[in-house]
Amino acid sequence: MANGMPNAVWLSQTALVVPVSPRSGNTVIVFLWTLPTIGLLVNSFRPRGPQLTTGWWTAFQTGDLTLDNYRQVLFDPPGGSISFGRALVNSFAITIPATVVPILMAAAAANAFAWMPFKGRSWLFIGTVTLMAIPLQMAFVPLLQLYGGGAHWTIFGETITLFPDLDLLNKPIAVWLTHTAFGLPLAIFLLHNYISSLPADVFEAATIDGANHFGIFWRIVLPLSKPALAAFAIFQFLWVWNDYLVALIFLSQNPTASPLTIQLVNLVTSRGQGTELLPAAAFVSIIVPLIIFFSLQRYFVRGLLAGSVKG
Q1: CB neighbour burial string for 75-104, b if at least 16 within 10 angstroms, e if fewer
Q2: pLDDT in tens, 270-309
Q3: Nearest Cα residue to 224 out of 126, 125, 86, 115
Q4: Residue 81 pLDDT
Q5: Are the beta carbons of 242 and 287 closer than 8 angstroms?
Q6: CA separation for the pair 20, 31 (Å, rounded)
Q7: Among 187, 196, 178, 179, which Cα is nearest to 229's?
Q8: 151 forms bridges with which residues in the sheet?
Q9: What is the CA 305 to chain-centroid distance, rounded?
Q10: Distance CA 85, CA 72 (A)
Q11: From the CB of residue 288, how many other CB atoms can be counted at a distance below 10 Å?
């Protein structure tokens, strides 16, 4: 008994007032989550022999660290036809257009679906969102034919050119056009949820002041939609930057235009040489996505949750 109360009641009430801080548990989870990355980072500075024979934690005792792995990865890879430095530039040439172009197109389309009344708007929006269910892989053969020879339709002996042969195959533009096309449905869906939740009074006031649709979109919608734009930019950038399959399919005959993901595979030769370069190459390939994510992370959660509830 304590103060006239039964022991069970006193213990239960005492347990309710014990402060519990989640910080220690979060710290342990973060440490366990980042431990493999720390090991990869340490191994990226170790020579081939110690990498294959000892654990990464022994590097702090032996001090066998070197920058040769990064030098060889960036300027003199053993297996790839081009250096990682050149592949880094190729990745930017593919990823930047494949991120910026769908953002601008999707923002304009989402604004039209949200605030511009026109006939069949709801059905057209449903059809656009439905395109997210189409697998990317099923479009490879039609896109290869489209980029390599155009699209033609023969009817009653007459050949009609639906899409001219622009000779896009084995060029970076073929890769970022593909990513743009398949990224648009998700982008329109995410941005529509956000833009439709913007206050209608702002649009009514802008219309009364004489602003047209483009002025409202450029001066009001885009500035207010920064969280949603940043959220999709992170998704799209990471997807395109880490893509291997699309780049392999559409750049198979042009190795000098291949991005980092292709060269990462080519680092290891047929005789197994170059395995010690993989940790360094992995860190070269992830440094840019990390910078993008940490630069835009304050918008990330806001952009994903905005428009999900209304109150």
Answers
A1: eebebbebbbebbbebbebbbebbbebbbe
A2: 555 677 888 888 888 888 888 887 877 776 666 555 544 4
A3: 115
A4: 64
A5: no
A6: 20
A7: 187
A8: 163
A9: 18
A10: 10
A11: 17
pLDDT at 141 over 50: yes
Burial of 224 (0-12, 13-18, 19+ CB in 10 A): middle
| pLDDT category of residue 54 using cuts at 50, 70 and 90 | confident
Distant-in-sequence, close-in-space partners of 306: CB < 8 Å, separation ≥ 6:
193, 194, 197, 227, 228
Partners of 54 in the beta sheet?
Answer: none
Which residues are CB-neighbours of 190 under 8 A, at least 6 positions away? 106, 228, 231, 232, 303, 304
Helix (H) or strand (E) holding 66: none
Structure token digits, residue 152: 């033609």
Q: Which amino acid is at 299?
A: Y
Tens digit of each residue's pLDDT (9 = 90 or more) over 60-109: 777 778 888 888 888 876 665 677 878 888 999 999 999 999 999 999 99
CA gyration radius, the chain: 27
Cα separation, 9 vs 18, in Å, equals 15
Report the C-alpha gap between 151 and 143 in whole angstroms.
Answer: 10
9: left (phi over 0), alpha (psi -120 to 50) or beta: alpha
- Dump the DSSP string for 189-235: HHHHHHHTTS-HHHHHHHHHTT--HHHHIIIIIHHHTHHHHHHHHHH
Per-residue model confidence (pLDDT) at position 111: 92
Burial 150-176 (b: 16+ CB within 10 A, else e): eeeeeeeeeeeeeeeeeebbbbbbbbb
Mean pLDDT confidence for 23-27? 72
Q: What is the pTM of this model?
A: 0.78
Q: Which of 19, 3, 173 is nearest to 96 (CA)?
A: 173
State which amino acid sits at residue 266.
N
